[in-house]
TrEMBL record:
Keywords: Oxidoreductase
CDD domains the UniProt entry points to: BDH
Protein name per its UniProtKB record: Iron-containing alcohol dehydrogenase
Family annotation (Pfam families): ADH_Fe_C, Fe-ADH
InterPro entries: ADH_Fe/GldA, ADH_Fe_C, ADH_Fe_CS, BDH-like
Chain ranges of the Fe-containing alcohol dehydrogenase-like C-terminal domain: 188-355
Native organism: Sessilibacter corallicola
Positions in coiled-coil regions: none
Keyword Oxidoreductase applies: yes
Domain Alcohol dehydrogenase iron-type/glycerol dehydrogenase GldA, first and last residues per copy: 9-175
Superkingdom, natural source: Bacteria
Keyword Oxidoreductase appears in the UniProt entry: yes
PANTHER family per UniProt: ALCOHOL DEHYDROGENASE YQHD
């Protein structure tokens, strides 16, 4: 196992009808900015319950944070924070609203140009403080409710921002609010959570047994409970397991002390930036081809994945690996996620554009060992046609 620090201060409040407890979690004299997206939180009752939970506190609303949140939109909220003397941010929505709120929390307390918070990749930006924030998560997918990451769109590119100052103080995970999700968002969330795990698990072995077995447990839970949630909107037991899987997939626990890949995410972000394809879907397009391309480098962990996650015991290692990748792709397809680029009208020229953008972004040495170059990205995308 590699050396690691594990730090996660987020208080999770899991379960139905708990928003009255907001009162215990936000200072009574706080001036609160409640942030949300395009209006789903009005339809599922989350906003109403949040306002009731905040009681007599002074509250201002900021709606309209779009999927793949735009820097310019977030800066409008930063202006309001400053003008109104806001002291607490409350995100109510999916990953985009939670991520956007994290960025607002950092930018509102940052003295220099806010753009300069964006260009630090997986290293922390030069922020010294942030406004406190909490979340009411309505879409299980990103893990944003319990991590320090945000992804912000700026000039048609997606930038990760990773700051320990951006951890939510608390996050409510109430499964009731997720019942208004369209089916395709459930599928996107299952794919996103699954691939958060594989980015931290399908690398090379470092004998991190707890992390490996927890990663395998999350993957198996997604394989079991994801399709039930997708098919049956009323199955609360399956949904709760799916929601907690998505949080556990990216809250730092399974990623402690192990190598990380993130190449699928970096390629996927470019597909979203250039073609507007939803985040989870981009990952499901890339992952199967990436795994086929990287079978040699990932041989040991892919064999373990085949045996322990997909219970494949027959045949050579190579047979097991091939079948495990096929089963993974079939799993995404079973959720009506199409895993080829042609379906999204992306041809050879489109692939060139994606690779060109990655070069501009400096994404030229990806993977757990930094050896996945743009020639390799090109092969992966051609194989995904
Ligand atoms: O805007 P509203 O009206 O709320 O509608 C949203 C949006 O249209 C809707 N939605 C959310 N909750 C709903 C609902 N509709 C009905 N009922 C509900 N309960 O779903 C649509 C998509 O929402 P969005 O927040 O964009 O989706 P998701 O949670 O998948 O977040 C995607 C964003 O997170 C970033 C992605 O890059 C993308 O920008 N990521 C953040 C990560 C992190 N913070 O650690 C890691 C991820 O890998 C990812 O990159
Ligand atoms: Zn993701």
């Amino acid at each position: 196992m590699q050396n690691f620090d594990f730090y996660n201060p987020t208080h999770i409040v899991f379960g139905q009808n708990r928003l009255a407890e907001l009162d215990n979690l936000i200072p009574a004299d706080a001036k609160v900015l409640v942030l949300y997206g395009g209006g789903s939180v009005k339809r599922n009752g989350a906003l109403e319950q949040v306002k009731a939970g905040l009681g007599e506190r002074s509250v201002i609303e900021f709606g309209g944070i779009e999927p793949n949140p735009e820097f310019t939109t977030l800066m409008k909220a930063v202006d309001i924070v400053k003008q109104e003397g806001i002291t607490f941010l409350l995100a109510v929505g999916g990953g985009s609203v939670m991520d956007g709120t994290k960025f607002i929390a950092l930018a509102a307390k940052f003295d220099s140009e806010p753009e300069s918070l964006l260009f630090h990749g997986f290293n922390p930006p030069p922020a010294k403080e942030a406004l406190p924030l909490g979340c009411v998560a309505t879409l299980p997918a990103t893990g944003s409710e319990m991590n320090m990451g945000a992804v912000v769109t700026y000039n048609h590119q997606k930038y990760p921002v990773m700051s320990p100052l951006a951890f939510p103080k608390f996050s409510f995970l109430d499964p009731e609010f997720t019942k208004t999700l369209p089916k395709e968002q459930i599928a996107n969330g299952i794919a996103d959570a699954f691939i958060h795990v594989t980015e931290q698990y399908l690398t090379y072995p470092v004998n991190a047994k707890v992390q490996d077995r927890m990663a395998e447990g999350v993957l198996q839970t997604l394989i079991e409970e994801g399709p039930i949630t997708y098919a049956d909107n009323d199955n609360m037991d399956a949904r709760k397991n799916f929601i907690w899987s998505a949080t556990m997939a990216l809250n730092g626990i399974i990623g402690s002390g192990v190598p990380h890949d993130w190449a699928t995410h970096m390629i996927g972000h470019e597909l979203t930036a250039s073609y507007g394809i939803a985040h989870g879907r981009t990952l499901a397009i890339v992952l199967p081809s990436l795994l086929r391309e990287r079978k040699t480098q990932k041989h040991d962990k892919l064999t373990q994945f085949a045996e322990r996650v997909w219970n494949i015991t027959e045949g050579s290692d190579d047979d097991k690996i091939n079948l495990a990748i096929d089963k993974t792709e079939a799993f995404f397809n079973s959720l009506d996620i199409v895993t080829n680029l042609t379906h999204y009208d992306i041809d050879d020229q489109g692939i060139e554009k994606v690779v060109g953008n990655m070069e501009k972004m400096g994404l030229t040495a990806l993977s757990e060992t930094g050896d996945l170059d743009l020639a390799c990205v090109t092969r992966i995308l051609h194989a995904a046609k």
